[in-house]
Design brief:
Helix content: 40-55%
Distance between the termini: 59 Å
Number of helices: 15
CATH class of the largest domain: Alpha Beta
Protein name: Aldehyde dehydrogenase
Strand content: 15-25%
Keywords: Oxidoreductase
Pfam families: Aldedh (PF00171)
CATH superfamily of the largest domain: Aldehyde Dehydrogenase, Chain A, domain 1
Radius of gyration: 22 Å
Shape: globular
InterPro entries: Ald_DH/histidinol_DH (IPR016161), Ald_DH_C (IPR016163), Ald_DH_CS_GLU (IPR029510), Ald_DH_N (IPR016162), Aldehyde_DH_dom (IPR015590)
CATH architecture of the largest domain: 3-Layer(aba) Sandwich
Bound molecules: NADP nicotinamide-adenine-dinucleotide phosphate, magnesium ion
Strand order of the largest sheet: 14-15-16-13-12-17-18
Largest sheet: 7 strands, mixed
Organism: Streptomyces nigrescens
Structural class: alpha/beta
Length: about 475
Amino acid sequence: MKQHDAMYIDGSWRPAEGGGTIEVVNPADGQVIATVPAGSAADVDAAVRAARAALPGWAATPPQERAARLAALRDQLVARADEIAATVTAELGAPLAFSKAVHAGAPIAVCGSYAELAGTYAFEEKIGNSTVLHEPVGVVGAITPWNYPLHQVVAKVAPALAAGCTIVLKPAEDTPLVAQLFAECVDAAGIPAGVFNLVTGLGPVAGQALAEHDGIDLVSFTGSTAVGRKIGALAGAAVKRVALELGGKSANVILPSADLAKAVGVGVANVMANSGQTCSAWTRMLVHRDRYDEAVELAAAAAAEYVPGEKIGPLVNAGQQARVRGYIERGVAEGARLVAGGPEAPLEVGCYVRPTVFADVTPEMTIAQEEIFGPVLSVLCYEDEDDAARIANGTVYGLAGAVWAGDEAEAVAFARRLETGQVDINGGRFNPLAPFGGYKQSGVGRELGRHGLAEYLQTKSLQF
Ligand code: NAP
Ligand code: MG
């Protein structure tokens, strides 16, 4: 596996100031596949200085030229898609077909969308006797997780660059190799030195130093609600902008008129994708009492098809594997009924968890409230639509969700009642231009499309 024992700062690969390293492990077999530098506060400082020095030039670069660089970056991602997929499979464990389609494919779509938006967005508008200028926020500090390791990087870097911001990225320690590959793509795309900088390292060290740095104007974080809360507090104290994409516990609401087999099949696939490590996963399935038993049977049968090591990969590391198995034990202890899977590891080697379905889950149970981040589905029963809405809205989260009904208008009417940032109607497909982000404790701000671009802009009004 290709690796750099250096960090991409100010347009070149530089060794870390401290000597620490991080081992990158393949969770499918436990083998160490690479080591990367563990950046320190001094490395973060060097990267932030480079980004600040590059800011005036990049902010003044015409949007059409920024668009051309983003198009070149997209072309790099296309040219290296197989390498990207293989890298994500090695460091995250995702099956190769999924890595190709999603881990390599989604960043290409998102990067392409910002190449287009940079060239067409109205960075100036007239409002009465004013001209409003939409100017870059400044230097961005981006902290990303491991679950969609390149998508989450591109969902921050592409809009930041489109807006005219410069950026320092601290990727997750579990998945730094695809971030290094991305830095090579940025370099090959002719993006000027200092505009994008990469510091690999540990969250509480490099991540914290980045969030605290007074040379950063906006911190954009994706990850756990626990860390997001800390980063929000730091940003608040420093009066700097912050964007948070946090956890979820999304509801898949199947109304009585829905095509039950389709709704359950798509719902189980949604939870099992990426081994359940998806913040927007529909981890609670809500089914009317009259169709509940049938739905549970269908869900158990669908989950059984996800054979560990074949159709479903391992979790990212042994810590996550232990955490998810702990949640399955907790579900059993609280009285939920296991209908597929269970806490035992399915394979002797690798961080695998059995695809698990719980029936008879009640809304106050831990497995109905907390983000598990593994292949675990909770099936809950509701009495009527009011009850379904109450249960669906009854968590601290509000990131995504789904509604299924025989008639689209009926599904839309129910979707309007949901306190959540996205709802897929009767299996509607992912839209890389639609705003993505959370209500309630799922976050602050939106990513993707023009709403995501606006996060990296601030306004100045000129009156005439
Ligand atoms: P995490 O700790 O929130 O990691 C996200 C990013 O924040 C990583 O780059 C991490 O670095 C960094 N970080 C950690 N502590 C930090 C700090 N004090 N200051 C600044 N940055 C810091 O998430 P995790 O531990 O990897 O996963 C734990 C749980 O979070 C999961 O089980 C899941 O429930 C949730 N999660 C949610 C999402 C999502 O997309 N919403 C993504 C991942 C995880 P390191 O990589 O070095 O830790
Ligand atoms: Mg962590």
